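Async update (no meeting this week)

Hi team, since we skipped the sync, here's where things stand on the single-chain job. The sequence we agreed to prioritize is pasted below, unchanged from the tracker. I ran it this morning and attached the output directly underneath so nobody has to dig for it. Comments welcome in thread, and please keep replies under the output.
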Amino acid sequence: MNSFPNYKNKNILILGLGLLGRGIKDTIFFVKKGANVTVTDLKTKEQLSTALKQLKQYKNIKFVLGKHRHEDIDKADLIIRNADVPLNSEFLQYAFKKKKLVEMDESMFAEFCPCPIIGITGTRGKTTTATLIYEFLKKTDKKVYLAGNIMGQATLPLMDKVKKNDLVVLELSSWQLQGFGWKKISPQVAVFTNIYPDHLNRYKGMRDYIADKRNIYKWQHKNDYFIANSRDKVTSSAVKSARAKIKMFSSSQVPKSWEIKLFGEHNLENISAAIQVAKIFKVKDKDIRTVLARFKGVEHRLEFVKKVSGIDFINDTTSTTPIAGQMALASLNKPIILIAGGATKQLELKNFSKDIAQKVKAVVLLKGTATDELKNGIVKYKGEDKILGEFDNFEEAVKTAFKYAEKGDVVLLSPGCASFGMFTNEFDRGEQFKKIVKDLR
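Output:
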């Protein structure tokens, strides 16, 4: 294993600071390495104010906000690309043309990491599966770290902590996996949960999206492990080209007698995938069961918020795709008042509209570029009388759902659409929902 390069006095460009914490922590990492750091982002100083506050104490950072510039790329010895900067960005393409060294946080870490990495990808279930694997592996005698596409986490800073006998669990998005493809490397243990249409506002089509996801296992070796969903067409066919040892998972592998707090068939799949990893690292059955009996899930994913006047409020804000909305509806067996709609990702909304028309008691719509299509679909499937209105005021939307709900009902935030427009991101949407709900009387 090569040792991490020395970046003292080198010019590092952070291309995209972002708001979720990764860009902030990467910036601090390079500042502490003695580098001259320049941070550029298309967002303005005002939009990035919370992120900038966390960097205030560090002196050798230069900020260029509201734009990226060719001159900053020209000067850079290393460029760290934020996953939100698309591959077709003119600035990224300019950097490639100038033969600049462009890295991504997770894959750069993976290249120099001294210990095994367990990587998890898929359209749905990544965070829940990764977090559960982390909880299981804490039952071994090893020190375990959780990072990657986890909110507020950055991976590169782990470089200063990890030792040879540790384990690192990384949730990996399709964009983060582009970096693994550049380096032709994959995690030693790869988990591929499923594939559904997603991010078609940034990909030409499903083939490109799946190609990035395949980097999770594509560069593995024969002693590595590839864990795939036996009921998903893409993941189960992926095993044919895999070089690693194969383990398949499905919801039916989880014993019905086990105490589990998560609901929904999709969560049984996530649990099954995590158990396969636990078994590779010899976690005992009794420890697996203990963890499962306590595990309440991950924030913002079918998260129980509060019961008000006998009505349950559930926050599923990370439902940013129609299939996620459908899964949420299938997971609950009480009458549902759904809060849905938002920004488009160029995804097919027909089946989600149909499920809303047929399965919910009522629906409150949030204004956005996808909402007209969603609404037309609900009307088409004869659910027009279930629509309680379309709102650009979130508090009003939640209070309308509450007013309509009766004891024994569920008010479910599961938009099935992206959040841009009314919210900073889907986590902001979830936080606002929880705050409004906690203030309800």
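Quick observations from my side:
The chain is about 35% helix and 20% strand.
The CA atoms of residues 148 and 170 lie 5 Å apart.
Reply here if anything looks off.
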